[in-house]
Each structure stands twice: as C-alpha cells, then as structure tokens.
Amino acid sequence: MAPQKRGTRLDQFQSGAKPQGEEGSDPPAEGGGQARRAPQGPSFVTVSELTDLIEEDLQQDERLASVWVKGEVSGIREYPKAWYFTLKDAQAQINCVCWNYGASREVGPSLKEGAEVLARGDVTVYKQRGQYQLRVAEVQSTDKRGALFLKFEQTKKKLEAEGLFDESKKRPLPRFPATVGVVTSTEGAVLRDIINVISRRFPHVRILVAPSKVQGEGAEHEVIRGLKALADFGGVDVVIVARGGGSIEDLWPFNEEALARAVRASPIPVVSAVGHQTDFTICDFAADLRAPTPSAAAEIVVPNAEDVFAEFQAHEGRLRRALLHTRDRAAGRLERLTHHPALRLPRTLLEARQQMLDEVADRLRANSRMALERAQGRLERQLAALDVLSPLKTLARGYAIALDGAGRVVKSAAGVAVGDTVDVLLTDGELGVRVQSKKARRLSRPDDA
Amino acid sequence: MAEKKGREAAGDEAEELSFEAALKRLEEVVADLEGGRLALEDSLARFEEGMRLSKLCQEKLKGVELKIEKLVAEGGRTVPRPLDEDD
C-alpha cells in the first residue's frame, strides 16, 4: 500500500479540520491519510484513515495537551484497569477515562459523583467508537475544602517520594526522659491533659513548654520556632507537638510542608499528637512517632513510675537470687569434692597406716620387753651356771687343775708321760709335780649342765 | 540536686554515670550474674555493684520532682519561666 497522495479532497479535509495545516509538509498528509480514487467517482479515505487523521490532529494541538477542564463529574464507572466518567457543564459534556496506573492511579478513587472539579488531561481518540475523550491524569476539587484535601495529598505524596516519612528515619524515644518539651498552645485543654498525665504517671521530669499558636494563618511558623527554641535550649530529650481536634482548616498548619521538614530536621525525637484519633496530618507522618491524642502522647513519652520502681526491685531480686545460686553452686561443688574418693582416700590411707604404726609400736614395745626379760633370765641362768662351773669354785671344793709344760690343761692321763713335769693349780697356789706313775681310771663328771 | 545526692551515695565509680547509663550497666550486671560463669568473689563484687546501681538509679529518679516551665523570650534570649497557673 504505497502512499499515493492525491491532493484535492484530502487537502480540503485538512484545511477544514485544521486551520493551520496549510503546509503540505504536515505529518497527517505525509504518513497517515492515503486518498484513493474509486474507478468512477471521487477520491476517498477509509474510516480508519480518517480517524487516524483526526487523532493525529488532536495530538498535534498543544491547546489540547495537558489541559485543565472544569466540569461536574457524573456517571462514574469503575473497571479493573480504568475509571470512566463524564465531565459536563450546562452546554456540553466529554467522556473521560482515568487509567488505574501511573500518576493517575489515585484519581479514580477520589472521584465523587456530582462534584465540580478541575481535571487535567490530554484529549485522545477512542477509535472503535469514534469518540474523543479526556484522558485524565489529575483531578482537583474546586471548592476550598476539596482544594485542601488535594493539597494534603500532594504534599504527602511529594514528601513521601523524598523519603521524609521513611521508617528508617524514625528515631527511638528515650526510655527515661529527664526533660520533655511540649510545643502547643498554653490555652485550652491540650497542655493541661499532657501535664496531668505526666504528673500522675511519672512526676520525675521537667516539662518545658514552647508556647505556640496552633491554629490560623502562619501558626506553623510558631510551631517551627517552638521546635527550634527547644532544640537550642538544650537538654530536652523528647518533644511533643500537640493540638486538639478540629476541622481540616483548623489543623491545616500541621499539614504545611515547612512544618513537616522542621519536624524531620529536629535534633530531638518528635511525637506528633494533632487532632483526634482519626485525624492524620503531614506532621504525623514526618514525626518519629504519631500519638492518637495529646494524652496518649504523654503516656508514650514517660514510663509509669510504679513500673519503673518495680523493675528495680525485680533487678535486685534477680541479683540476690543469682548470687545465692552462685554461692549454693560453689558450696555444692566443695561438698562433692570433699567427698570425692580422690580426697577421701589419702586420709583413709593415712589413718590406716597410723593404726598399723601404732600396732607395730605396741608389738615392738611388748616384744622388746619380753626379749629383754628373756635375755636377762638367760643371763642370770648362765651366770648361775658359770658360778657353778667356775674353776675357782671347783678348786675351792678341793679339785686341782693340771697344766702341762705348754700350759695346756691336762684332761687325760694319756696327755702326760711318766717323768713329765706338771703344774698343779690349787685354790691358793700351784705345785710343780713330777709324774711318777699312770693308771687308767674312769671318773664321772660332777656337773653335766 | 538529685544528681548530687546520687553521686555522694554511689562514690567515684558511678559519678560519671547518667541514669540511663547506670540502668544499662545494672542490666548488664544482672545478666552477668545470672549467666553463672563468674567466680564466687567476682559474683559478690558484681552483686554489690548491681545493688549500688539500683539504689543509685532510684535515688536519681526520686530526687527529681516534677517541674513545669515555659520558654519565654527575654532580652533576645529564650529563658525558662514557671508556667503560670492561669496559663
């Protein structure tokens, strides 16, 4: 299908549909439309080709790109991938599509039937139905409250994208603050509530209030100044930013970007307690912790004194028990060691040996005495025998001892010859005697012992 | 004032300790002692340290009375002033 440009009707169409399109170099003429001539009759384009031409024209028109359209929302239909609705005013209406992805993802759910809005989008063509439509990227409410909600969403999205609300940026609160900073109004119940809770729960802190307007034009700047004053003053461990409940307009200063940044930049951890439980502010997201109410914030920043003192009692109890346990275990070990055979044996052995020693000593003593007595008896008997056997005694009884020339005792007659000289010992002297004769004769011995 | 009282009671060792630091040390001491790996003499020393820390912490707390002030600008400086009853 080679492009075959035939001027007249197409050019006419182009000039009609698109006033500036006089130059023949326009892309629709170049790439899109292909006019043909029927065998007999005028040249033509197909419906698809015409639609392409229209689409390209719309895409070219800068006035139709990213245009804000004011109208009333009606006929909202939700599909998995897109929201469809109509924007209308008294005279006209336009179909709108809002895709469920990308930048427009959150637009669909925010649509309200009958609401007057500003919708930003591009005009596109839905070829299958021959319709043009607004492809919506963004919707803003035209009333003031709606505008605030919108601004809230925008600020939240922006700061979220910057990482200002990242969990990793949240700091832990001190367990035992010595000084609690409070940025709030000194009028109204909020400060009183906070003081009441702290004085009931943990009356061992200093409360330092940075008075601040919490409502109305420019209130956020006073809150920011309060945060800075507390940081500059020094020694403040945690800060509560608080105000009571109110309308979105009342709470608005806490949705200001500058305040959110100041909260995040605070060198002291910040607890945000703005509005009631159901109110969320940008300040809440930026803070290290969000408390549902000012009283709740007070409960969060200080512990319960009773619990704290009970905790110390518990610590002391644990110390005592642990020490007793250690002592008992040491004592138990000592006990086991004392009764261990390794320790018991040496003593037993010693005792046994001591006993043996004693017995031996006794026996020794007994034996020595007996031996001594026996020896003595023997000695006495021997002495007695000796006395009886003593030659002197024998001599005194009239016996004599004969000694030969060599001084040997003559015990037998055969020991001498007749004529030998013999010394005869008597009890009181000795005689020189010559042997004159010998005769054999047997005498019995006087003592055999 | 409470700080001073605590310091006098606790002696040199605890002098530098803040309440938080003393509490942290106390928790370590309890854990050490309960771990049961200490010699008897060390256990006794640790026990005494722990009891001392516990008393120190409690004294520090009890010594601090609730004080409520507001920051006011005076002569270009921010100073704490008692919070008025009618505030």
Distance between the termini of chain B: 27 Å
Q: How many helices of chain B in DSSP terms? A: 3
> What's the β-strand tally of chain A?
15
Helix content of chain B: 55-70%
- Report the principal-axis shape of chain B: rod-shaped
For the biggest β-sheet of chain A, the strand order reads 3-4-5-7-6
Q: Residue share in helices of chain A?
A: 40-55%
Q: Please state roughly what percent of the residues of chain A sit in beta strands, choosing from under 5%, 5-15%, 15-25%, 25-35%, 35-45% or over 45%.
A: 15-25%
Quantity of strands of chain B, as a count: 2
**Which ranges of chain A are low-confidence, i.e. pLDDT below 50, for 5 or more consecutive residues?**
1-12, 14-32
Helix/strand order of chain A, N-terminal first: HHEEHEEEHEEHEHEHEHEHEHHHHEEE
The largest interface is:
A-B, 40 and 35 residues
Structural class of chain B: alpha+beta
**Could you list the spans of chain B in which at least 5 consecutive residues all have pLDDT below 50?**
1-12
Instruction: Round the mean pLDDT of chain A to the nearest integer and report it.
Output: 84
Report on this model:
The complex is a heterodimer of chains A (449) and B (87). Chain A is α/β, with parallel strands linked by helices and 449 residues long. Chain A is built from 13 helices and 15 strands. In chain A, strands 3-4-5-7-6 form a five-stranded mixed β-barrel. Chain A has a five-stranded parallel beta sheet with strand order 9-8-10-11-12. In chain A, strands 13-14-15 form a three-stranded antiparallel beta sheet. In chain A, a hairpin with a 4-residue loop joins strand 6 (116-126) and strand 7 (131-141). In chain A, helix 7 packs parallel to helix 8. With 87 residues, chain B is of the alpha+beta class. Chain B is 57% helix and 16% strand. Chain B has helices at 2-10, 19-35, 40-63, and strands at residues 67-74, 77-82. Chain B has a two-stranded antiparallel sheet. In chain B, a hairpin with a 2-residue loop joins strand 1 and strand 2 (77-82). In chain B, helix 1 packs antiparallel against helix 3 (40-63) and helix 2 runs antiparallel to helix 3. The longest helix of chain B has 24 residues, at 40-63. The relative contact order of chain B is 0.17. The chains are: A alpha/beta (449), B alpha+beta (87). Strand 9 of chain A pairs parallel with strand 1 of chain B, so a sheet runs across the interface.
